[in-house]
Automatic annotation (TrEMBL):
Residues 33-253 form the Ionotropic glutamate receptor C-terminal domain. Pfam families: SBP_bac_3. GO terms for molecular function: ligand-gated monoatomic ion channel activity. Belongs to the bacterial solute-binding protein 3 family. This is Amino acid ABC transporter substrate-binding protein, PAAT family. InterPro entries: Iontro_rcpt_C, Solute-binding_3/MltF_N.
Length: 287
């Protein structure tokens, strides 16, 4: 049995082992405003309202997080995903809110909370396309968001499956490339692909690609205290059903039982990744 699996089994087959709900992650923040970066336009995570404000799953998530951490306000900054990491390193914002897959390469450079959503990639194509597997993508053009795990997958498998890759600063532009005929498919996070397919009858998710990855909130290595407090708040949101409620509201279905949205991990961060700390103080209210 691996360490990661052991930790997940310890982590609660429910929140009974660690009574998180009754505790508070709140502590006095250094600033009254939580600064968060997101790639606005990636539906349904972060979208622009007609009045210029933002809405979406990630927006509701960060507002709930800020409330639990004791902030008065949230400043969500619209940052292209291709440059979102450099802004974190330069301390332009406190955290990356955009759905960010936890990979070992990224975890070497920044700190993650434990995963709050299981992720796979969806291949978004014309609803008339008859494609069911990556091998059928030969000769096609795939549109991806620069800097994303979808781009990583496309780079790794381009030669194997014989497709071309177009890269865009925002996934909305990649989707538009498919709708205009400039590309044959958009590869993106499957929740986003499913949402676009629901909104655009001309498009459908041809198939999913299982990456085995999980999505987490990202912080700079100098901001471990905030990462730890945010990690604790995410665990609370899993335990009291808030996170599952947000998912159901924006994605129209309940999260998969036993997935990252309901399973709580012991410690701080993503087990098995750099930056993870094994602790058993799940009930603490301050860092």
């Amino acid at each position: 049995m691996t360490l990661g699996r052991t930790l997940r089994m310890l982590a609660l087959a429910g929140a009974t082992a660690f009574p998180l709900i009754a505790q508070s992650a709140q502590a006095e923040p250094a600033s009254r405003t939580l600064r968060a970066a997101s790639d606005v336009g990636l539906a349904p995570f972060a979208m622009v309202n007609p009045d210029g404000g933002y809405r979406g799953f990630s927006i509701d998530l960060v507002n709930e997080l800020a409330s639990r951490l004791g902030y008065d306000d949230v400043n969500v900054m619209d940052v292209q995903f291709s440059s979102i990491f450099s802004g974190l390193y330069a301390d332009r914002y406190d955290m990356i809110l955009a759905p960010t897959d936890i990979t070992r390469e990224r975890a070497e450079k920044m700190l993650f909370t434990e995963g709050y959503m299981s992720n796979q990639l969806g291949v978004l194509m014309s609803a008339e396309a008859d494609v069911e597997a990556p091998k059928a993508l030969e000769g096609m053009t795939l549109a991806v968001n620069s800097g994303s795990v979808a781009e990583d997958w496309a780079n790794e498998h381009q030669e194997q499956y014989g497709f071309d890759v177009q890269r865009y600063d925002q996934n909305t532009d990649a989707v538009q490339a498919v709708m205009s005929g400039q590309a044959d498919a958009n590869v993106t996070d499957s929740p986003a692909a499913d949402y676009v397919a629901q909104q655009q009858s001309r498009l459908a998710v041809a198939f999913d690609i299982d990456t085995g990855s999980r999505v987490g909130l990202a912080f700079s290595k100098e901001n471990r205290e905030l990462r730890d407090r945010a990690d604790h708040a995410i665990e609370q949101m899993k335990a009291d059903g808030t996170l599952a409620g947000l998912y159901e509201n924006w994605f129209g279905s309940e999260p998969r039982p036993g997935g990252a949205m309901t399973m709580i991990s012991v410690g701080r961060g993503e087990p098995g990744m750099p930056g993870y700390e094994l602790t058993f103080d799940q009930g603490r209210s301050t860092p």
